[in-house]
């Protein structure tokens, strides 16, 4: 899979778009379930962070299809990983796959 690495201007533009989406009703509805996309645990909606499934530093965009609510622990662990890299990481640490998205 090929991803282009964005330059500083593109990164800044995507971060601005993410901030705008974070303030939107769409995002408030998206996180209202209180469920982390990655671990499946329940949290207060305000405790969930916005994660780029494909990180902007790896060519992802701040578009609704690429944004999911997740807990701070998962967001911190995932860092710049792509979905396949995250799945491999979770398998290596022996995480329970029942809560992982397909």
UniProtKB/TrEMBL annotation:
One of its GO terms (molecular function) is endonuclease activity. The keyword Iron-sulfur does not apply. It holds the Pfam family HNH_5. SMART domains: HNHc. Keywords: Endonuclease, Hydrolase, Nuclease. Transmembrane segments: none annotated. Residues 25-76 form the HNH nuclease domain. The keyword Oxidoreductase does not apply. PANTHER family: SLL1193 PROTEIN, TYPE IV METHYL-DIRECTED RESTRICTION ENZYME ECOKMCRA. This is Restriction endonuclease. The lineage of its organism: Bacteria, Pseudomonadati, Thermodesulfobacteriota, Desulfobacteria, Desulfobacterales.
